[in-house]
Amino acid sequence: MDFTIRNATPEDMGQVLELIRELAAFEKEPNAVEIDEKELVAEGFGEHPLFQCIVAEVKGEIVGTAIFYYRFSTWQGRSIHLEDLIVTSSMRGTGIGSALYTEVMRFADFKGVRRVEWVVLDWNKTAIDFYKKSGAVLLKDWYLAQMDKKGLQAFVSKKFAD
Fold it and tell me: Which domains does the chain have, with CATH numbers?
């Protein structure tokens, strides 16, 4: 399988958004994607980009992507969070996901970060096995905590109303 891994451009964000939607469907959240192409371009390619994106391309079509950004750890210093690594379903098992993952790890090493972290759903055995095989440690004693927009609004209105 011949493919190219390269840095994404603003023009790629339409195809990247389609991969994001495919991932949402795979993760059983088909209606969860609220972002649009315009926001991806603005947030990823503006004066202060919030994320970096690499893509895998086969014959001019984007078939995979890795989206990541810097974080700061009070224990480790600069780290990278791998937000999503997506390969379209028809291209899984071809080495594209491994190549994208490797590129993110090389980037992190080159930048001197002390940690790369990401989350994986507990039922995604294929991904879990891949990550374990790569040497990643899956932390089972930590919870992922989130507050969505509705929760934020409820919290802020309650908190400041008291």
Answer: 4-161 (3.40.630.30)
